[in-house]
Specification:
Helix content: 40-55%
Structural class: alpha/beta
CATH topology of the largest domain: Rossmann fold
CATH architecture of the largest domain: 3-Layer(aba) Sandwich
CATH class of the largest domain: Alpha Beta
Order of helices and strands: EHEHEHEHHEHEH
Length: about 210
């Protein structure tokens, strides 16, 4: 069984769809505070419907029992406070979800001999790019609460690989967009404005290219 945390959200729901298309047994673990159950219905999953468990990654006991009950072997962790304005407004919640929640999954997985942990991180962990193209050796110099919490969880995940040998993959996404995105991210905003013939506003230091 593969658990996808945040599986009712934007990225998570598409990950679930692809896994279902591949024929995997999938379980969505989501508290539905940001996720959208209607989004799952619209996706029309191939082959069968995924299992859905209502739960919060900040609750270690529930995470542990869910992994054990469903005999979860792999976790794809997409759950997060991912909208920067929300992270700035609610830093304590952002830390608890993005850092403590990730730790709970890793620790429960360690105890239960998890076979694979995939963490969906963010390019916000880098801060301002010191060189391009950016690679995984680039320093993590996050400039805001969101990026800092993702960077912390990123490093904790890798520490579980180095300390306990847990198979961990970290994916630092950037400028994600697509169907089902409920947030006003820049790429979506530009596409919609371009289609409507509206000007595309860039806010910065005048050095955009």
């Amino acid at each position: 069984m593969i658990m996808v945390t945040g599986g009712a959200g934007f990225i998570g729901s598409h990950v679930v769809w692809k896994l279902m298309e591949h024929g995997d047994d999938v379980m969505i673990y989501d508290n539905l505070r940001q996720g959208d159950i209607d989004l799952l219905k619209k996706l029309r999953f191939p082959n069968s419907e995924p299992e859905i468990v209502l739960g919060d990654i900040t609750d270690f006991a529930h995470v542990f029992q869910t992994l054990k009950r469903y005999n979860v072997k792999k976790i794809i962790h997409t759950a997060a406070i991912s909208f920067i304005p929300t992270a700035v407004e609610k830093p304590s919640l952002t830390f608890n979800v993005n850092v403590a929640g990730t730790f709970n999954l890793l620790e429960a997985g360690r105890i239960l001999d998890l076979e694979k942990f995939v963490y969906i991180s963010s390019a916000s962990t880098y801060g301002d790019f010191q060189y391009e193209p950016v690679d995984e050796r680039h320093p993590l110099e996050a400039k805001d609460i969101y990026g800092a919490t993702k960077a912390a969880a990123d490093r904790i995940a890798m520490s579980y690989y180095r300390t306990y040998g847990m198979p961990v993959t970290v994916i630092r996404t950037t400028s994600v967009y697509g169907p089902g995105d409920l947030e006003r991210r820049v790429v979506r905003d530009f596409i919609e404005k371009a289609l409507l013939g509206k000007p595309l506003d860039l806010h910065g230091g005048g050095e955009q290219r």
